[in-house]
Amino acid sequence: MITKRIIPCLDVKDGRVVKGVNFQRLGDVASPVELARYYSANGADELVFYDITASAEGRSLFTEILTETARTVFIPLTVGGGINTTEDFDRVLKCGADKVSVNSGAIRDPSLVGKAAKLYGDQCVVLSVDVKRVDGVFRIFAKGGRENTGMEAIEWIRRCVGEGAGEVVVNSMDTDGVKQGFDLELLEKVCEVVQVPVIASGGAGKIEDFITLFQTLPGVDAGLAASIFHFGEVEINELKKEMKRNGIPARILEE
Amino acid sequence: MVAIIDYGVGNLFSLRSSFAAIGVEAEVTSDPEVIRGADRVILPGVGAFGDAADKLRESGLDRVVREEAERGKPLMGICLGMQLLFERSYEYGEHLGLGLLKGEIRPIAERIPAGLKIPQMGWNALKIVRESPLFRYTKDGEYVYFVHSYSAVKCEDSLLASTEYGAELTACVGKGNVFGCQFHPEKSGEVGLRMLKAFCETEAGR
To answer: What is the pLDDT along chain A (255 residues), one digit of tens a residue?
Structure first.
């Protein structure tokens, strides 16, 4: 049986891994290349590199780091952050990325998902969304969660998948950083409307949160988290073993 | 030296890097002379079958690959490259493949229960059905990374390993010096690298 994927996310700024707590305070963790190697050796099924640099220097440093990672880490790599055009897709794919995640870029240019899917295939295009409840309605936020677009989230996701997004990363801003579990209500709604893989993000604080996620929502394919992995609060191989004990298919590396 | 065939389909960065990681010299090339001079050949590929088959034919490399394989040179197709080794595919119409292996490519949707996602994307276990030098360092049940919507059928002749995704799907094939992986060994961690290493140790000859 295909396994549920566990995906550490590395936010990279000026060549270093950072983790926003509710997107605000940023603290340094480690070298992205070293951390990627560590995760790959310890059971991560995939890695997400998120470029949160604004400057041109930062961007070229990011592509160097990406290249260096792809040279030595042989699990799928998804890259996001600053992806606004098909040229941006090209830039990161040439450095060894397997999938490219678009967020604000798709909001700014809704034709981007379709164009990229045509050029690189649906499997290569990942839609990433930051979602927050506003007056009881799920809304899409842009620019790293700073700007309410006013768009209803489920409809936006459905539309982008229709255009060719081959996977969806659903990040709940309401549960992100709170460490009280994933946003099951939001994720359930997303699973109801899309047939492509759904990756849950935001809210994992402990192993049980992943167990609850996969047991409650069989339609969710993967769980993504950052700080709990970076700070060693959850060790991926331990998490996988616990998943397996609970009957959730997981890929466990031999020791 | 391993020749990784570049016919304008897909990204070969990781494939080249994975040979470097196992200490095997590899060259990404579209030069028939380099391919003829290589010890082994890798036929990669992502995207649609018809498009890839056309590109391979337009470049004339289809003949080179077939000739080298028929001379007994070890050849491995990866993902779409594996599918191209077969006789034909029914991905958007009907397209001819290289015909080096018996069998054809059909949508997995025809064989798996409704409700399972397509493509199969992620890590799934190998079920080895036939011994092969390709599995020199691989154990039954090890996980590899798949991304595919089509798979090889009617290929009992060359089937080496399958994977369970609502049905038994073809994962690995091999006959004589011709091998293929539906999954991506270059994205399957240590398991994938070990399989590439085993391929590099296979002997020439049909």
So the answer is: 899 999 999 999 888 888 644 333 444 457 899 899 999 999 999 999 999 887 888 888 999 999 999 999 999 999 999 999 999 999 999 898 999 999 999 999 999 999 999 888 899 999 999 999 999 999 999 988 899 999 999 999 999 999 999 999 999 999 998 999 999 999 999 999 999 999 999 999 999 999 999 999 999 999 999 989 988 889 999 999 999 999 999 999 876
CATH code of the domain containing B111: 3.40.50.880
Query: Strand ranges (DSSP E) for chain B?
Result: 2-5, 26-29, 40-43, 75-78, 88-89, 95-96, 104-107, 120-125, 127-128, 143-148, 150-153, 159-164, 168-175, 178-181
**Does the beta carbon of A72 lie under 8 angstroms from any beta carbon of chain B?**
yes
Contact of A58 with chain B, judged by CB distance below 8 Å, is answered with no
In angstroms, the CA B137 to CA B198 distance is: 7
Residue B104 within any structural domain of the chain: yes
Q: Between A and B, how many CB-CB pairs are < 8 A?
A: 76
| Residue in A74, A100, A193 to test binding to B, most B beta-carbons within 10 Å | A74
For residue B192, the enclosing domain spans 2-200
What pTM was estimated for this model as a whole? Answer: 0.95
Task: Look at chain B and report how many structural domains it folds into.
Answer: 1
- Whether B173 maps to a domain, the answer reads yes
Cβ of B125 under 8 Å from any chain A Cβ? yes
A 161-180: CB under 8 A from B: 166-167
Asked, for residue B206, whether it belongs to a domain, the answer is no
Domains and CATH numbers, chain A: 5-245 (3.20.20.70)
* B105 located within any domain: yes
| Identified catalytic residue from A45, A51, A88, A130 | A130
Active site (annotated) includes residue B95: no
Contact by Cβ (8 Å): B108, B165: yes
- List of chain A residues whose C-beta atoms are within 8 Å of the C-beta of residue B124: 1-3
Contacts of A178 (CB under 8 A, 6+ apart): A22, A203, A205
